Amino acid sequence: MGAESYTGRINRKLNKKLRIVEVAAGREKADLVLKNATYVNVFSNQLCCGDIAVAEGLIVGMGEYRGEIELDMSGKIVLPGFIDAHIHLESAMVSPKEFAKAVLPHGTTTVITDPHEIANVMGTDGVEYMLQATEDLPVDVRFMLPSCVPSTPMDESGAVLDYRTIDSFYDHPRVQGLAEMMNYPGVIGADPQVIEKIVAAQAHHKKIDGHAPGLVGNDLNAYIAAGVYSDHECFDPADAIAKLERGQFIMIREGTAAHNLEALLPLLTPQYADRCMFCCDDKHPSDLLEKGHIDFNVREAIRQGVDPIVAVKVACHHAARYFLLNNRGAIAPGYLADFAVIDNFQDFNILQVFKKGVEMYDGTSVRDFPAPEIDPYLSQKAHDTFHLARLTAEDFAERRPRGIIGMVPGELVTTDQGYSDRIDTGWDILKIAVIERHKNTHHIGIGYLQGYGLKGGAVATSVSHDSHNIIVVGTNEEDMAAAANRVAENKGGIVVLENGQIKGEVALAIAGLMSDDTLENVNRDLEAAKDAAFALGVSRDIDPFMTLSFMSLPVIPTLRLTTRGVIDVEKQQYI
Amino acid sequence: MGAESYTGRINRKLNKKLRIVEVAAGREKADLVLKNATYVNVFSNQLCCGDIAVAEGLIVGMGEYRGEIELDMSGKIVLPGFIDAHIHLESAMVSPKEFAKAVLPHGTTTVITDPHEIANVMGTDGVEYMLQATEDLPVDVRFMLPSCVPSTPMDESGAVLDYRTIDSFYDHPRVQGLAEMMNYPGVIGADPQVIEKIVAAQAHHKKIDGHAPGLVGNDLNAYIAAGVYSDHECFDPADAIAKLERGQFIMIREGTAAHNLEALLPLLTPQYADRCMFCCDDKHPSDLLEKGHIDFNVREAIRQGVDPIVAVKVACHHAARYFLLNNRGAIAPGYLADFAVIDNFQDFNILQVFKKGVEMYDGTSVRDFPAPEIDPYLSQKAHDTFHLARLTAEDFAERRPRGIIGMVPGELVTTDQGYSDRIDTGWDILKIAVIERHKNTHHIGIGYLQGYGLKGGAVATSVSHDSHNIIVVGTNEEDMAAAANRVAENKGGIVVLENGQIKGEVALAIAGLMSDDTLENVNRDLEAAKDAAFALGVSRDIDPFMTLSFMSLPVIPTLRLTTRGVIDVEKQQYI
Q1: Measured between alpha carbons, how far is B423 from B326 in angstroms, rounded to an integer?
Q2: C-beta atoms of B225 and A24 within 8 A
């Protein structure tokens, strides 16, 4: 469509609205009628019955209607489509289109994403890439702008985003606000460069999401008074209630890395539930394919005794109101015709899913839809994010003692295991390196890693929080160089290699984070690569790639490795 | 303040925010601390205890704080300031400053007004006048733009507002949306000129209020699907629930003309209360002085058994969320320091009221505050809205038979009482006229009125819904002319007159609707004028001016009188 005047826009919307009124009043046939539907009414907090009429992608009325298409809903329950309140789409390791295909069968029709990972690689081009890659998908993808790129000044990321850099994105119709303000010490300490990001988001009347694990008392007051409206890091009810009673909305997180649903079920009562929503934060391929998405949270909550109406509202209505997406999250006239149809609350099987009145999932397969068009220049740029020289074993040679980072099974925290000056697989002491890959600086940080278990070869990954440089861990420098070089050749991804032979790999050519392949193929490659890593000795109680990917994040205690060496996180000093 | 760049604005807000964080974190003293406060927490739905710290007009934290001013709140209960969700400020017959002085002692800190009355007189200049007259008042006055000016094409108002005429006002920071869409037949009938007003409001991401008494079924679906988000005309729970369960927010109205609180108390339960708020629609001087404002609703609701926390939330939090005024309606960090302090829930006496952290009412008197500056051109224009020639008895001479409008005590509906060709006080048949006063057209509609009771003289008023022409009713044409002329001389208001002698009068020189005098003086004059009307025989069971003012509103059955004659409202025909 070409340029459109304001009057032209009003006229276009007027014509659509006139048709909606004609259908709602019963003078014209609806596009679609869900006949004899039992549906959750989020306003009167009960199940209602009747026909649900749809025109122009919107619900126009409930009662008695005739439609061009009429589908009998007897014996089923119709729910508003689900909303994931906070996810980094990149965590699915596939394109947004593939992600949408994966979550539609689970009833998800809206997600709020923070394109934080790709922004660390490509800056605002990464945000724009994701906006274009999600345009008109049958899952509505809304954005929160990354607030902390890089995670700390110690990180060497592909970009630095200050408030001016991201400001113009607030005008985009799918941008809802500023994403998780992870730098809570900066907020509480009144760092102007941190606070001004919040001030700018507020000036645009946008939401600001929070990330403040365990923050309490007057520091929590300061963080909230600064303008942070939500939190998704709550791990127990006391933590959540302290935030909720100060006005924050609580996103109950159940994802691949963090599992807070069970602990936070006590929030899902009439006293607190209005201020709660669901999110997953991150969701890896196998998790998406095996566990599902927001439907998993609702099903689990109901099984553990939560009132089904409350659980459904937490899965849709509350997030919609928080993000001011006031045309969804309910079944009522004027709302988007986004539905998840289930068999019953106990089994909670998703039978059909509709997006804007179109059946996108029929219980068997997802209706095909076009991939969004992406500016070729931007697409090319997203596929060319590795800027580093070819590596040799010499690059990883290091005689001086370096800190040993201790991995803890099932946790993201690490321990300080002292120093080493050599690899010793007998003591499970491996060499680990982080290689700057954005600006060809040839910065390579070297340290040692204990607890990973590798007995031969090397493992490398370009998914490495938050700057997404290349992390490589190995039993010898030759394989480390070969694995890292192979990652760069693939334009990103994961490589497991021994004696120069590739044992498993996943190519992630979009910014080194996402694949152009299908979710099923990525999952197959990823599982095969995991098996290869386990075969080389990696401990079975560690996720070989996810756990590794956090070794470079210098904001979680105790020791981490950046492109400049091993850091003591609490002291924010190199050791 | 001169022009300010975006960067300048961010910097200014940043400096304020940095101080807020310093105070919240406890590193600087607060401006004000309410010590040992018991306060309603609208998020956890309970009473909480602690200090409430205020800086820069905002609440910064609850807990333990020190402040420049510390006020002990022991034994009192602190509530968020109240919000009136829908009022025509003009109904108070005083300037907005006087209105603010009147409602502050009742705990009101925000009102949403529809400047519908003045807009019928002055068009967009009237809207602009009210915006200027409310700037920076200690009661935050927010606006909904009038949607139905004139009320019908049969009316001769001072202005006609289509969507383009009001469009630029949506950019004003205190405009929240489009006011009550009274023309619900136009919406349901898909009248493009009606629907485009809704479409334009939605294009600006604004709210649209409703007004649809008794609407049900698919017509109600059509009205809501068109984009109307609330209703304040509900008179019984069934009517309200039908709207609520279709997604409308319900404004429970308790004002001077309509009393719906008691009937709608069943809504104030956990099942429905989240979608309810309070409003008064109109509030006359004596009512404001004697009954109070939103505090009256809360007190009554609690006395009739509503949970006090629920009643308080309905009085503040829900309206704030509906209107997207997300910085008020709660006591929490980042929220406006707007408080109503009471003694206890049962007596519900307002002891103190704070606006943005300033004590505006101390239990005895209202702190003085400046009157907003109004553009002199606009002020002059508002005081010069009577454009008509001097009237004589001849103007009211009429030999042909005219319809008789029957007044019904305590109701706004009228009855069809046949025809008359003369005044006959023995049968209580009076002459009534509506005189066009905006454009000097000399249009005068003449009819007869039964049930008013006047035995001598005439009563005239320029408060005459919705076009605010002059209504005059009398026992003889000479007094009718004199009373109407006196209204015009006073530049508007109410006149009671007999044999050329003024028996009582209220000057309403601002657009013929509001006085420049104090509320107390206006009330004194108004009560004296009422007594004068009663002394001249007006029935004691009729409000002599309010009931009269509705005789010209051609949207309420059965008969009405406009500048062109008596109308049968249901047929929309002159009789």
Answers
A1: 57
A2: yes
